[in-house]
């Protein structure tokens, strides 16, 4: 990824901002904003003002304090849709590959009821995600900084807007997409100093992951209110046995000591099935409806509603806050050969995905999301991994509701350099896991955390690194297994001893022995047997696949044809069918759909390993995988054997 713009010492010094401690979000809760009787929310999607800082050091915005007045007053701006990546929106090739600071701005009129009262409501500005490093001002006052491109952050802006004249709220965001050896994902800046070959101050962003480094405000920006005293966080865990379920809960309150705190658990029809009071306790549910994965039960994705009500005295006012949390009752357990959900063996037959589409890049897009879930259910897929970063909360909501099982992965992809295993990177990785678990801890669809993808785990420093990250993750959430996804040799992997499930990626007859399908049975069988003999842990084939150019045909199969992709899948499947009777507990195809990458000699407008095109049209491999997944579902389901791809869907 190149940026033919001036860099030099100004950019070098400016990038140090990425390592300065800011007003980052603390250990407070991160409840998803919802409309309730005591809360209001407003999405700020649509057109924002936008400018890329093209100054020699990318620092004009800070030097000239663009945040102090409307952005249009300091120079030209263009319209930029939010949520969306900025890269593909314009016809400007320099913006497509831009590295550095960009600036967004939105002016919003606030309702008077949000600014008045004794006490006045608490007003929070929340970003679903912005890639990668964000600094946010409201009416010229800095309110928050955040490092990381895939998780939410927010700021209480009550004092800023309530102290400003009128109801106008001007939100300014400076966003930097530069990746360093200590970011997640990591990267590095390389300066091209040979003036006979490159323009002055030419630099490129180097990355070790195979997807495009889209940037922008990718997920919804929301203003929401709470009372001055409010429910800050809710944590739930569930167990079940002998037709009785227990929902253990913990509620934290901020702003005042609660006069009363009551909880009601309602079923899908709204009937109260259990009640409780106090900040810590448990709710017992008789004859519970368990949360089951798609195709594992005739009623998958069953969700209860946990309504939490708080009353608190603040001055002379008695305030009430109400929050409703979806709750799925399910258990997860791992043995040496099985992955159990609600005590029954679960086999992952699913996909890896990307948040990626034409024009909007990684921007949240409801039509695309719904289309993807329709395709997943058509395919007979019961699971996916959030490769290689946490996905939007809106996507996770549908996984909960539809019964799609999720391996929830951090943005720890491309950890290859020795310096990326040092303490600086480690501390950031621990903080990212805290943010991820804080966001997704209550989701029944999330059955396992993945802390990284294809790191250089053969390096000796990986042992301490992954031992620490995995132990920290388990301490934060003892209820779920933890893994990372490896492509290292089984005998050299220093992180594998610490995982609960072995997740291994391999591309036999593609990246290894390209074109030789006949090597797959021997090499794949040896892979499984070596890993299991060494660790005695269940194994998921977390990636496998081949590129295919849609409409390119060859018989006998040749690489990049649809026939070769199909032939490779069938060779892998024959081995899966033998080993899933033993200790292989899942298979996740790479990839669900074609996606954009950096330009390169092996990439023709992106990675073509999708079983669907980037526009979500099926290749031949999609039909092969669909037949297989429905067959597996019929073999393992407790439902009558008349299940077909039409009886539960369409």
From TrEMBL:
Q: What is this enzyme's catalytic activity, as reactions?
A: a beta-D-glucuronoside + H2O = D-glucuronate + an alcohol
Q: Which EC number applies?
A: 3.2.1.31
Q: How is its activity regulated?
A: Inhibited by L-aspartic acid.
Q: Is this entry keyworded Ribonucleoprotein?
A: no
One GO BP: glucuronoside catabolic process
**Domain Glycosyl hydrolases family 2 sugar binding, first and last residues per copy:** 43-227
What InterPro entries does the annotation carry? Beta-gal/glucu_dom_sf, Galactose-bd-like_sf, GH, Glyco_hydro_2, Glyco_hydro_2_AS, Glyco_hydro_2_cat, Glyco_hydro_2_CS, Glyco_hydro_2_N
Q: What class of enzyme is it?
A: hydrolase
> Record's SUPFAM superfamilies?
(Trans)glycosidases (SSF51445), beta-Galactosidase/glucuronidase domain (SSF49303), Galactose-binding domain-like (SSF49785)
| Alphabetical keyword list | Glycoprotein, Glycosidase, Hydrolase, Lysosome, Signal
Molecular function in Gene Ontology: beta-glucuronidase activity; carbohydrate binding
Query: What binding partners and quaternary form does the record give?
Result: Homotetramer.
- Write out the function statement from the record: Plays an important role in the degradation of dermatan and keratan sulfates.
Which PANTHER family does its entry note?
A: BETA-GLUCURONIDASE
What is the name of the protein in this document? Beta-glucuronidase
The organism named in the record is: Struthidea cinerea
Q: Supply the gene name.
A: Gusb
């Amino acid at each position: 990824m190149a940026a033919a713009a001036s860099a030099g010492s100004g950019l070098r010094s400016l990038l140090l901002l990425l390592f300065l401690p800011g007003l980052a979000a603390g250990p407070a809760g991160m409840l998803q904003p919802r409309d309730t009787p005591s809360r209001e929310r407003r999405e700020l999607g649509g057109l924002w003002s936008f400018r890329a800082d093209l100054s020699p050091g990318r620092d004009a915005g800070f030097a000239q304090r663009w945040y102090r007045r409307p952005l249009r007053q300091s120079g030209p701006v263009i319209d930029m849709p939010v949520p969306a990546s900025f890269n593909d929106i314009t016809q400007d090739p320099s913006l497509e590959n831009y590295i550095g600071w960009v600036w967004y701005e939105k002016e919003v009129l606030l309702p008077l009821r949000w600014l008045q009262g004794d006490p006045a409501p608490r007003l929070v500005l929340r970003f679903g995600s912005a890639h990668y490093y964000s600094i946010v001002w409201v009416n010229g006052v800095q309110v928050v900084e955040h490092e990381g491109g895939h998780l939410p952050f927010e700021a209480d802006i009550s004092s800023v807007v309530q102290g400003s004249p009128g109801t106008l709220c001007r939100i300014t965001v400076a966003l930097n997409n530069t990746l360093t050896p200590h970011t997640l994902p990591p990267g590095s800046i390389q300066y091209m100093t040979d003036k006979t070959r490159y323009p002055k101050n030419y630099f490129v962003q180097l990355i070790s992951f195979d997807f495009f480094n889209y940037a922008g405000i990718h997920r919804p920006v929301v203003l929401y209110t709470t009372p001055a005293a409010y429910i800050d966080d809710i944590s739930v865990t569930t167990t079940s046995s002998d037709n009785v379920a227990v929902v253990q809960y913990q509620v934290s309150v901020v702003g005042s000591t609660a006069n009363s705190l009551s909880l009601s658990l309602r079923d899908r029809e709204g009937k109260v099935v259990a009640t409780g009071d106090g900040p810590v306790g448990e709710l017992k549910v008789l004859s519970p409806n368990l949360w089951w994965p798609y195709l594992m039960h005739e009623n998958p994705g069953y969700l209860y509603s946990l309504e939490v009500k708080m009353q608190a005295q603040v001055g002379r006012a008695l305030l009430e806050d109400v929050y409703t949390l979806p709750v799925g009752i399910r258990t997860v357990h791992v043995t040496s050969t099985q992955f159990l959900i609600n005590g029954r063996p679960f086999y992952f037959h699913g996909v890896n995905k990307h948040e990626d589409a034409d024009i909007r890049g990684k921007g949240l897009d409801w039509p695309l999301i719904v289309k993807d879930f329709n395709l997943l259910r058509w395919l007979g897929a019961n699971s996916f991994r959030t490769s290689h970063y946490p996905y939007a909360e809106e996507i996770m909501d549908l996984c909960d509701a539809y019964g799609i099982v999720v391996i929830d992965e951090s943005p720890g992809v491309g950890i290859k350099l020795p310096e990326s295993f040092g303490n600086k990177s480690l501390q950031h990785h621990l903080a990212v896991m805290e943010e991820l678990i804080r966001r997704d801890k209550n989701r029944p669809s999330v059955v396992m955390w993945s802390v990284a993808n294809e790191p250089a785990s053969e390096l000796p420093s990986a042992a301490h690194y992954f031992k620490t990250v995995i132990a920290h993750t388990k301490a934060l959430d003892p209820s779920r297994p933890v893994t990372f996804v490896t492509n290292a040799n089984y005998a050299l992997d220093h992180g594998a001893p610490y995982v609960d499930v072995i997740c291994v990626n391999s591309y036999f007859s593609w990246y290894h022995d390209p074109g030789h399908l006949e090597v797959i049975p021997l090499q794949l069988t040896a892979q499984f047997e070596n890993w299991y003999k060494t660790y005695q842990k269940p194994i998921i084939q977390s990636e496998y696949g081949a590129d295919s150019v849609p409409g390119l045909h060859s018989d006998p199969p040749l690489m990049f044809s649809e026939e070769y992709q199909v032939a490779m899948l069938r060779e892998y499947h024959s081995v899966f069918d033998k080993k899933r009777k033993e200790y292989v507990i899942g298979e996740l195809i790479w990839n669900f759909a074609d996606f954009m990458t950096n330009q390169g000699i092996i990439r023709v407008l992106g990675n073509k390993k999708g079983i669907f095109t980037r526009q979500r049209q099926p290749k031949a491999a999609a039909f092969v995988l669909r037949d297989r997944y429905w067959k597996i579902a019929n073999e393992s389901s407790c439902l009558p054997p008349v299940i077909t791809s039409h009886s539960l869907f369409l």
